[in-house]
Write a structure and sequence with these properties.
Length: 88
């Protein structure tokens, strides 16, 4: 499982295999499932484990010392303009 980033609403997800599903963003949560919306607007429900299996957390490898931004900072900056962002 991918850590240290914790899933939350508006977490941006990069697909591991574009032939199965596109990039996505977390839009809500229902019980144990996270609802994600793909770049094409399709909504799917996944458990946290399934998300870590299918997607990479975008910018999870960014660290301040190397790139200038942390994963959380990159997530925040990029989700502000995301077309499927959930306003909370």
């Amino acid at each position: 499982m991918q850590e240290p980033y914790t899933l939350d609403i508006n977490t941006i997800l990069h697909t591991k295999d574009g032939s199965k599903i596109g990039n996505a963003i977390v839009v809500s949560r229902k019980g144990y499932n996270w609802i994600v919306k793909t770049d094409y607007g399709n909504e799917c429900a996944f458990t946290q484990e399934e998300i870590y299996e299918i997607f990479n957390i975008a910018w999870a490898d960014y660290v301040k010392e190397t790139h200038g931004f942390s994963c959380a900072e990159m997530q925040y900056m990029m989700q502000q303009d995301h077309k499927h962002r959930t306003i909370i």
